[in-house]
Specification:
The chain is an alpha+beta fold. Helix content is about 50%, strand content about 15%. Helix 4 packs antiparallel against helix 5.
Length: about 110
Amino acid sequence: MNIDSMDAEQSERLPIVIEGQSFKPNTEGLWSLNEIHRGLALPESKAPSEWSNSVSAELTASGNFRKVDKVGSFADELGTIAYAMWVSTTFYLMVARAFVAMRNDA
């Protein structure tokens, strides 16, 4: 893959829309879980920094979930959906639907 195709791929990254709010991935294709948490006013007990279970550990080991000191938590699509499942069933369904809509609109 050459630099031009990488730039095109990065500029084509589509946002997900949850409850009318748009969240766009960074240049690495990772969504800021902190931005989603704050933007949707999720409970403080469900902050990304509190997510610590076997699923988050496995996703961290595989690179799908990253905690960056003093910056926040980031996840790819798989990690974002897994985080949503941890938050609540209702939130999981919202996030999963947002990714499906993004793909269908692409």
